[in-house]
Design a protein that fits this description.
The protein is an alpha/beta fold. It has helices spanning 41-51, 66-77, 120-124, 127-132, 144-157, 173-176, 186-193, 200-212, 251-264, 269-283, 296-305, and strands at 5-8, 12-18, 32-39, 56-63, 81-88, 94-100, 106-111, 135-138, 161-163, 181-182, 217-221, 227-231, 234-238. The chain has a single domain (5-10, 41-90, 116-305), classed as 3-Layer(aba) Sandwich (UDP-N-acetylmuramoyl-L-alanine:D-glutamate ligase), CATH 3.40.1190. The protein has eleven helices and 13 strands. The strands form two sheets. The protein has a nine-stranded mixed beta sheet with strand order 5-4-1-8-9-10-11-12-13, sandwiched between helices. The protein has a four-stranded mixed beta sheet with strand order 3-2-6-7. Strand 11 and strand 12 (227-231) form a beta hairpin. Helix 1 packs across helix 9 (251-264).
Length: 307
């Protein structure tokens, strides 16, 4: 595979605060180091792939507000084509409120804004971009009917589909059967399959359920337990790299972007997973979402130094 990556997904502004620990219900605690970052899984994955050398465009929406102008500007500064990003005059730019504790774990509240107003007809208007791309990447932070429209267009035109089912929700078998690469984390895999994913064996069992629904290749990211891939009757697991975790925000997005860019370079599935694990390991050592995503040279250096 080689060529252009088209991302259909969310564009947010992240407002992140660090705390020593998460508050209990009804409790007020002090925080520190509040920052505003570009976010949204769609935008993050587009930038992650671009920083790894991919040719990337994004189909999405922002509000007609300062946050929207900021979000588009950040994407363009990363070399992502935003010509198909709608400016919605009736909804604000999507916003995420993120709290990160002392161990690097995060809690996120997402207000969809313009992301929630994306409709199938908006996707249909961008049919030419999906049809001419070498890979379509989708997530579930925009309405499922819009995601379904994108995947249907891809299937009609022979464009491979990578779906990151986040946040997880029930999906029709027909939709999953059109997905070439399903990449959930362990929580999403459990929610969608009904199998609690706690180790490699349970991850394999969850992947089998997805295969039964028609998905050809399944990659499950498992946080500190690494990642596994199931495809063509074969399973392989990689351990996570031993790094100091400061913030897990965007680790999955980093993985998706690096995985996709690696596939576009002609790497095998297993090689692409290995590159993606290095990229996400770098990401968790940094604060923020888009700001934590590594560039290609950093991943290449880590692949030499950490082996």
């Amino acid at each position: 595979m080689s060529g252009h990556i088209c991302v259909v997904g969310s564009l947010n502004i992240d407002i992140a605060a660090r705390v020593e620990r998460m508050p209990a219900p009804g409790e007020t605690i002090g925080g520190f180091d509040m920052k505003i970052h570009p976010g949204g899984k769609g935008g993050n994955q587009a930038v992650a792939a671009a920083r790894m050398g991919g040719s990337v465009s994004i189909i999405g929406a922002v509000g007609n507000d300062d946050f929207g102008r900021m979000r588009k500007g950040w994407l363009e500064s990363e070399g992502v084509d935003t010509s198909l990003v709608r400016v919605d005059g009736s909804a604000p730019t999507g916003t995420a409120l993120i709290t990160v504790d002392g161990s690097g774990q995060n809690s996120i509240i997402v207000i969809p804004g313009a992301n929630g107003a994306i409709r199938p007809e908006h996707i249909e208007a961008a049919r030419h971009r999906i049809a001419s791309s070498a890979l379509l990447i989708c997530q579930l932070e925009i309405p499922v009917d819009a995601v379904s429209a994108a995947i249907r267009i891809a299937a009609e035109n022979g464009t491979p589909v990578l779906l990151n089912p986040a946040p997880a929700c029930p999906l029709e078998r027909d939709l999953l059967s059109s997905v070439d690469f399903l990449v959930p984390n362990e929580i999403e895999a459990a929610q969608m399959s009904g199998i609690e994913v706690t180790d490699v064996d349970s991850a394999v069992a969850a992947a089998e359920k997805f295969h039964d629904m028609g998905t050809r290749n399944v990659v499950i990211t498992m946080g500190s337990r690494g990642a596994m891939i199931s495809h063509a009757g074969r399973v392989r697991h990689w351990n996570a790299h031993n790094v100091k975790v400061v913030d897990t925000t965007a680790a999955g997005d980093s993985f998706i972007g690096a995985f996709a860019a690696s596939l576009m370079e002609g790497r095998s599935l297993e090689e692409a997973v290995e590159v993606a694990i290095f990229a996400s390991a770098i990401t968790v050592t940094r604060h923020g979402a888009q700001s934590s995503l590594p560039i290609r040279s950093e991943v290449e250096e880590a692949m030499v130094e950490w082996r």
